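User:
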Amino acid sequence: MFKYFKGRISQGFVSLYSGRMVLWISDGLLGLFLPIFLYKLFNFDLNKVIYYYLIGNLLYGATVAWGARYLDKVGLRRSLRISIVWGAAFYFIFYLIDRGTKMPEWLWSYKEIIFFLILSVFFLTLNRLMYWIPLHTDLAKFTSKSNRAKQLGLMGATTIAIGAVMPLLAGWILTHYSYDILFLIAILTFFISLIPFATLPKTKEIFSWSYLQTWREFFSRRRRKAVLAYFGDGAESIISTIIWPIFIWELLSGNYFQVGALSSLIVVITIFLQLSVGRFADKGNKNKMLKYGSIFYALGWIIKIFIATAFQIFITSTYHNLARIFARTPFDVLNYERTADQGHYIDEYTVIHEMAVQFGKSFMLIFVLLLLPFFNIQWMFVLAAVASLSMNFLADEEIIKRESIID
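Assistant: Predicted structure:
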């Protein structure tokens, strides 16, 4: 690892990396299967699943600027730790829902389900408000310019490695046991992440914008292309998060283990490439990598429209993962470089980023709701292909120079 980096890496990055990877175990176990859980809970009504995610994304996007001002009183390090409690509470709600669905109808009705789902959105919003801003802000501070792509590449490669094991394990658990075991494991790993986060050095940022000023900055002309890039990133990611897992689950006839095993097999071959791309991105032209990577990544979404078998899922998803690395690595590096260049306005810029991502997700979900009555689910991948191309706005040199100047 030490030969991989140029010089020493900060204790802050080690703490963030370790804590984030522990949390990724939860994401790896449930990221693929939580939308499927909701899909079954709503009696295979995809519209209701979309409404659930739409409400959550809109609520977080509308309140993140307010939450950032509250973090000034709590502190970034403490906020990150408190977020773990809210994240564990979010999964505990789903544990209760899963247990409740096994009770008699007179004891557990649709009203109880709605109540707990509303509560889950509330806990998730609190988790997001207290987690993502400190995480992005501290990553911008604790990653160095000479190693930033390699550091983010290491995080990406470890994420992929965990993602190669967790879906397989989750599929096995769901085949032999039930969702409640997955939710319990997720709760446990959330609390374990408190250990590395306890070693995180203290940082301080003062959010200096008012709520209204944040919205003015969000819609300002000079931030338009950056907002569009993050907007498209969020729009594309929601298709990966919701539509894709449900699509392959239905294609594989609801076989949890096959879904998990196939997903694990797909990602295991991309680990080395992720590290190689990180090393190359520190030396190469990130803008060109992003441009061509996003084109090939968008093409992958188009190819996925015509998938009909498990073998085709494997081939096209392997290609898509490789293309994603070439698009995602320079995009993330440019994002954190631009964030780090903001000086005392790192957390303000992070809020703009979070707002754009969440509203991008929300816009895409609304679009999907409008199109689903007329098109099959796989045609939603066209929307993801178009959205992924907007990531190129972040590579605009003029915008990069101009955004480092704060009025």
